[in-house]
Structure formats: C-alpha cells, structure tokens
Amino acid sequence: MIFSAVKQRQVAAHHRAEQFEGLARDAHKQAYNLAYRLTGNWAEADDLVQETFLRAYRFFDRYDDSLSFSSWIYRIMSNAHVDMVRRRGKLKTTSLESVGVNGNSTWDLPDMESSPDREMLQNSLNEPVQAALVEMTPEFRTAVLLSDVEGLAYEEIAQIMGTSVGTVRSRIHRGRKQLRSYLMKHAPKTYGSYLNEL
Amino acid sequence: MNCRTVQNNLSAYLDRELSGEEMLAMRAHVCECRACQEEEQAMRALKALLSGLPTPPAASDLEERLIATVHRAERQVHHQRLWTGSAVVFAVMSASAMFGILSLIGSGSPSQREARSRDRAEAMISAEIRRDQAHVAVADPYGGNLEVTEATYGR
C-alpha cells in the first residue's frame, strides 16, 4: 500500500513537471523581455529569468487560475528583482548603456541639423529610455513596464505587485514623470525633436 | 476640474483607468486648456516610446537552459523525498533494533539466566514441601509430632 502511494506521488510530480515545462516554454520570451527592461542588460536579465522560473517551479503547487501564468511569473520576477537589487546594490549597466554617446552624459547625437523623421527619433531614444528605466525607483519602473510594455490593466498590475489600484496609479504617474525628467536632462535635443514631430 | 487635478490624473486618463464621468471631465478640460493639452501630448508620446521599445533578443539557448533548470529542480525534489522516506524507515528500524538489544541486555548473561531459573525452581519446591508438611501436621491427631519422611524431591 505504501509503495503504491509513493508511485502515485511520483506520477503526479512528473505530470506537474510536464505541465510546468509547457507553460514555461510559452512564457519565457515575454518574461525575458520584462527582465531585460528591469535590469538593463542581458546578463542580469538571464539570471533574473532563471531565478524566476526556478522559484516558480518550486511554488507551482500554489499556482491557481486567479492570475494568468505570465502574470504569476511577473509577480515572482518582481519579487526576485527586488531581492537582486538588494543583493547587488544599484543596478550595474554597461558603459554604453549608462553614459550615452561618446562617453558624454547626454544621449543627443552630435549632428542634429538634419531632419530625422519620427521613427528615427524614436529609435534613437531607445537606449536613453532604457538608461532612464534603470535609474527609476524600482517600484515605479515595474509598474510602468507592466503598463506600457506588457499592456496590463491597473487591476492586474495591482494583483501582481501586491498593492492597491490607487498605489499602481500613483507609481505609474510618478514613474513616467521620472522618465520624462531623465530624457529632458540627458537627451534634450532628441527628445525635444521627437515631441515636435508629434 | 483644475489644471493640477487634471495633470495628476493624466496617466490614468491615457490608460483609460478613470470612470466614465471622470474621463468626460478630463477631456473637456484638456480640450480647452493649452498647458494641459501639451502635458497630455507629452505623456502620450512617452507611452508610445515605451510601448515601441524593441523586444531584446534572448540567448538562443535560454529556453533549453530554463527547462534544464526545471529538470534539475525536479530531480532535487525527488531525491529529497527519497532521502526523507529512507530516513524515516531507517529511524523506525533502528528504534526497533535498539529496543530488542536493550531487552536482551536487561535480561543478563546465559549463566545468570540459568541460575535465576534454578533459584525459581528451588523456591517452588520448598513451597510445596512446606505445604505438604502442613498438611501432614493437620492430619496427625496428636499434632505437633510430625511424622514426615525425608523429602526426596528437591535435591
């Protein structure tokens, strides 16, 4: 009787692992996207994704349908990211990502006399936007990314971050203001040109 | 609605997270206020910048490394359960064996056990002799003068 119970547990555990593997394969790219935006570099993003899915597997027994699997992964990643920040201190980025073009503190390209179109301006702002994200308050960064990159509603973001909708609203608003301040300081011409193209 | 209230709610307005009534009030103010209009456009542009960020390419083997991590975790859990189960069985068997050993130690060596057995037998026989003597004494009408043959049992 004991051995049959043990066997049943083994079968159930194997089935659970297969189920998790399927979900992980579907969600890993999206998870990496968020991890990259949270950390600012591929190496830490890779670490964050590994840690997130490891924790997710260990706590898979606690997963229910109240959250989508990807949102549940985001919740775990958000907590894992906070732990990572505490362990490593301020996020480290590569020199290219932190200081802008030619090592200056501005991201503006030297030749702004030509008339780049809106798409070019938007592309040239990708790196300063990522640098700005890294500088943001972590909770603001997470809320802004979940809203603007992942396209989630405030209610779902509140569930992921374990807080209220009102707090999510405040974090997103203040996060966007931080982002805007950074761009106005470190890429004033490019950002100004981009706004003028609207 | 004043400009400060409107600008504080601009993010929620752009994300359509306000009630219908609030949305209408915000729209009415933004349409009429140039400063708030510019703020709204700047916030909208920021949203577009963020949602337009390109998807960073992950390492080509990320998926397989993740699955390998899960498999390692599964094996660790499986081994932990095996060890836990084995430890329980071992503990039970050890406790049983210890109990048996202690029982044997408490009963003494074989020669001691034999001596104790002999003593018990002698005590029983002595008790039987005394019983028989008492019986004879009672049966003797003169009492006190026992005619007892020497007991042959008990040697």
Textual characterization of the structure:
The complex is a heterodimer of chains A (198) and B (155). With 198 residues, chain A is mainly alpha-helical. Helices cover 74% and strands 0% of the residues of chain A. Chain A has ten helices and no strands. Chain A has helices at residues 2-39, 42-58, 69-88, 95-99, 118-124, 126-135, 138-148, 154-161, 165-186, 188-196. The longest helix of chain A has 38 residues, at 2-39. Mean pLDDT of chain A is 85; it is low at 91-104. With 155 residues, chain B is an all-alpha fold. In chain B, 75% of the residues lie in helices and 0% in strands. Chain B has helices spanning 3-8, 10-14, 20-32, 34-51, 62-106, 110-139. The longest helix of chain B is centred in the middle third of the chain and has 45 residues, at 62-106. Residues 140-155 of chain B have low confidence and may be disordered. Classes of the chains: A mainly alpha (198), B mainly alpha (155).
List the topology elements.
The complex is a heterodimer of chains A (198) and B (155).
Chain A: H1 2-39, H2 42-58, H3 69-88, H4 95-99, H5 118-124, H6 126-135, H7 138-148, H8 154-161, H9 165-186, H10 188-196
Chain B: H1 3-8, H2 10-14, H3 20-32, H4 34-51, H5 62-106, H6 110-139
